[in-house]
Design goal:
Order of helices and strands of chain A: HHHHHH
CATH superfamily of chain B: Cytochrome c oxidase-like, subunit I domain
Helix content of chain B: 55-70%
CATH superfamily of chain A: Cytochrome c oxidase, subunit III, four-helix bundle
Shape of chain A: elongated
Helix content of chain A: over 70%
Number of helices of chain A: 6
Strand content of chain A: under 5%
CATH topology of chain A: Four Helix Bundle (Hemerythrin (Met), subunit A)
Largest interface: A-B, 42 and 47 residues
Oligomer: heterodimer
Number of helices of chain B: 20
CATH topology of chain B: Cytochrome C Oxidase, Chain A
CATH architecture of chain A: Up-down Bundle
Number of strands of chain A: 0
Number of domains of chain A: 1
Radius of gyration of chain A: 19 Å
Distance between the termini of chain A: 58 Å
Structural class of chain A: mainly alpha
Number of domains of chain B: 1
Chain lengths: ~200, ~625
């Protein structure tokens, strides 16, 4: 079956139409399983070390829930947009897919901007990567998540660009689906970061 | 239907660009054996240094480096690739698939492993090898107490680990999605089952290691404080993370060996594997328990009696599924028509050797007793019985068993059996006595000892054993060279095999199966043979076969990671040359490497790989040969 023959009628779920597509989706779920263990270890390190601030600012003094709440709102909403992109893909509406993916990218960028602002602010407060075990584990955990967001932003932007040239096919559909899965995963990790790092930092 | 012409390479370029699982198996095998020679030379140096009291072949620092590199090499650069070699050679064939789910990732996995291994070994030439033991315990491994060698360990293993993770995902997707019609989960050969469970363990064990390595890299290169007590860090955290990876790693290595033994024992007993269902159950249970026992490496850290007792019990529990396996192998042999050749000798001798490793394992699992054994040669003897007496014997059995399928040539039996006896005698001579050395008080990881403590003769005996093993390896290499010079002579089914890989020519054509076979039961090929058929019944008509295109990108991506690794490691080197300072201290090289790798990812995403088709006429021409 030639993958790029332009069918007038794509199957209802084009991402699962070929064995390659099904493999990709299964493989990506497995990859996300591995990512869970990765973030799990980073969380464990943070929980083990978060009390050791070595005289620097504590979590309670440092965190400002207002800005984090805005960041959370932005990221969770962006996840909705990626759902809408997949929904549009199932309706075979290419321009809508590209629109919603582009909006997802924009919200991802906004989240990153807020995170960078937040980190710069902390550094001015004397909370640097090398100042204590608490700081190292904080920047690693939150920074790893931020790096994942950055990777996702670049990836989805690349998708938006190539969709313009290639259109919606059984080759491009799994890519959209998998990118959306990745974006949801980043979102879920953030929910845990918000709880474990910020809320528990304020309360615990 | 558009015909895509795909450039097909020959010679060296063929090997650099291949995405064929059979060729990748050969790449894993040859590089694994190459590193095996390195690791073996390091082992011999260790044994020669300990041959006599107060001997000074190596000084303390060099000994630490050799010891660290021996352990690291043997685990990550020998056992892992050889396991992946066996999986790549056999699993797609055993499930009746034309390739793995992600051929491109398969190639990428190999090349990242290869360049990770090269990076690790480059440390010898740039300021000394890692020297804090293969467990890299902090704070000994941090910058304050050691040179630049440990950076090579951290980043080399990071790069090689990417490869293992990719292979794990790949085999899971392959086995779940690509089994031939009729190949239900409970009809899969046991080696495929152990590959499935092993891949799951890889998924959840390699990623914690990756995080641990990253954190220690941050500590060493960027001044973070994860494991540095002076900055509030916790050395015990490293131990936890390392062993959450480290203990499952043992099962990552030994479960595939169990699978190989199950195939070989059943084939050369001419019997169906006894207790197939219980074998599957035992494999899964070991996979589950492997994540619940890591603390038994840390009994003496001081976590208290409750933690120690719980983990001691969990560890002892593993003896139950392992015991199930041992008895099943024995009952498979019981009343079987046994054939004794090199492959089966390795497999049969695996059983008592591994039992001995298992028994000392249960002894070590008891926390109060462990306080006595801890950090002595008893532990060294134990894990060498598990790794050499278990994993390596299993791998040798697998190599002799599948060699005809991989290369189309039969290894020489006489030489094989001689090297088997040298290996087995040498192995027990080296390590049996180390149990007693440990009980007599000899600590591990010392580079020399005083005479008159009753350790002189046992150490001498142990070293003689190591030479026996070296002779065996030399004979094995000679065997490979002799076999290489011969014409391809292997029949499709040299062992009167039971599983699908023996139903196709040796070596198999690039598409494996001309027609995907229909599976009618466990031991699918045996079942057809018993029904009087010479071949498998096809499940599909003859048609064009879709193949993935070869690609150089996996190689370039791995080179990119390699360059980046060098860049990060050397960012802390003190150079005389101002040009070197400017390119390394500004991270220019490190970033360049990452740009290469990510650039290749972008190219891979933009350029669709349509592959190519092998038409039925071409299949007919090739079919004559079989």
């Amino acid at each position: 079956m030639s993958a790029h023959s332009h069918l007038d009628h794509l199957p209802a779920e084009p991402e699962k139409a070929t064995l390659e597509g099904r493999n990709k989706i299964l493989g990506f779920w497995l990859f996300l399983g591995a990512e869970c263990a990765l973030f799990g270890t980073l969380f464990a390190s943070y929980i083990a070390l978060r009390g050791n601030n070595m005289g620097g600012p504590t979590a309670n003094e440092l965190f400002d829930l207002a800005i984090v709440a805005v960041a959370t709102f932005i990221l969770l909403t962006s996840s909705l947009f990626s759902v809408l992109a997949v929904h549009s893909m199932h309706q075979h509406n290419l321009s809508k897919v590209r629109f919603w993916l582009a909006v997802t990218v924009l919200f991802g960028l906004a989240f990153l901007a807020l995170e960078i602002y937040e980190f710069v602010h902390y550094v001015h407060e004397g909370h640097t990567f090398t100042s204590s075990a608490f700081a190292s584990s904080f920047y690693s955990l939150v920074g790893f998540h931020g790096a994942h967001v950055l990777f996702g932003v670049c990836w989805i932007a690349l998708l938006v660009a190539q969709l313009g040239r290639k259109g919606l096919t059984v080759v491009t559909a799994p890519k959209i689906y998998v990118a959306a899965l990745y974006w949801h995963f980043i979102d879920v990790v953030w929910v845990f970061i918000f709880t474990v790092v910020y809320l528990m930092g304020k309360v615990g | 239907m558009a015909a895509h012409t795909v450039k097909r390479y020959t010679g060296l370029m063929d090997w650099l660009t291949t995405v064929d699982h059979k060729k990748i198996a050969i790449l894993y095998l040859s590089s694994g054996l190459l590193f095996f020679v390195f690791g073996g030379i390091e082992a011999l140096l260790i044994r020669i240094q300990l041959m006599f009291p107060m001997f000074n072949l190596l000084d303390g620092q060099t000994y630490n480096e050799v010891l660290t590199m021996h352990g690291t090499t043997m685990i990550f650069l020998v056992a892992m690739p050889l396991v992946f070699s066996m999986m790549n050679a056999a699993v797609p064939l055993q499930i009746g698939a034309r390739d793995v789910a992600f051929p491109f990732l398969n190639a990428l996995g190999f090349w990242t492993f290869f360049f990770g291994g090269i990076l690790l070994n480059l440390s010898w030439f740039f300021g000394g090898a890692p020297d804090a033991g293969w467990t890299m315990y902090a704070p000994l491994a941090l910058r304050e107490f050691s040179g630049t060698g440990n950076d090579y360990y951290l980043i080399g293993l990071q790069i090689a680990g990417i490869g293992s993770l990719l292979s794990g995902i790949n085999f899971l997707a392959t086995i779940i999605n690509m089994r031939a019609p009729g190949m239900t989960f409970m009809r899969m050969p046991l080696f495929t089952w152990t590959t499935l469970i092993t891949s799951m363990i890889i998924l959840f064990a390699l990623t914690p290691l990756a995080v641990g390595l990253i954190e220690m890299t941050f500590d060493r290169l960027f001044g973070a404080n994860f494991y540095n007590p002076a900055g509030g860090g916790s050395p015990v955290l490293w131990e936890h993370i390392f062993w959450i990876f480290g203990h499952p790693e043992v099962y990552i290595l030994v479960l595939p060996a169990f699978g190989i033994i199950s195939e070989v024992v059943s084939t050369f007993s001419k019997k169906r594997l006894f207790g197939y269902g219980s074998m599957v159950f035992a494999t899964s249970l070991i996979g589950l328990l492997s994540f619940m026992v890591w603390v038994h490496h840390m009994f003496t850290v001081g976590m208290g009696p409750i933690a120690n007792a719980l983990f001691g019990i969990a560890t002892s529990l593993i003896a139950i599924p392992t015991g199930i396996k041992i008895f099943n192998w024995l009952f498979t042999m019981w009343g079987g028509q046994l054939t004794f050749n090199t492959a089966s000798l390795y497999a049969f001798s695996f059983i008592p050797s591994f039992v001995m490793g298992g028994v000392t394992g249960v002894m070590l699992a008891l926390p109060s007793a462990d306080y006595q054994y801890h950090d002595t040669y008893f532990v060294v003897a134990h894990f060498h019985y598990v790794i050499v007496g278990g994993v390596v014997l299993g791998l040798f059995a697998g190599i002799y068993y599948w060699w005809p399928k991989m290369f189309g040539r039969m290894l020489n039996e006489t030489l094989g059996q001689i090297s088997f006896w040298f290996w087995t005698i040498g192995f027990h001579l080296t390590f049996l006595i180390q149990h007693f050395l440990g009980l007599w008080g000899m600590p591990r990881r010392v580079f020399t000892y005083l005479e008159g403590q009753g350790w002189d003769t046992p150490n001498f005996v142990s070293t003689i054993g190591a030479f026996f093993m070296a002779v065996s390896v030399i004979l094995f290499v000679i065997n490979i060279l002799i076999t290489w010079a011969k014409k391809p002579n292997a029949p499709a089914d040299p062992w009167d095999g039971r599983t699908l890989e023996w139903s196709i020519p040796s070596p198999p054509p690039e598409y494996n199966f001309k027609q995907i076979p229909l599976i009618r039961g466990l031991d699918a090929f045996w079942k057809e043979k018993m029904a009087g058929n010479k071949e498998m019944t096809p499940a599909e008509p003859l048609g064009p076969i879709h193949m993935p295109s070869p690609s150089i990108l996996p190689f370039i991506m791995s080179v990119g990671l390699f360059i980046s690794g060098i860049g990060f490691i050397m960012s802390k080197y003190e150079f005389e040359n101002s040009f070197l300072i400017s390119i390394f201290h500004s991270y220019a090289i490190a970033i360049l490497g990452l740009v290469i790798t990510f650039g290749c990812m972008v190219i891979r995403s933009l350029k669709d790989d349509h592959g190519y088709h092998i038409e039925p006429e071409e299949l007919e021409e090739k079919g004559v040969k079989a």
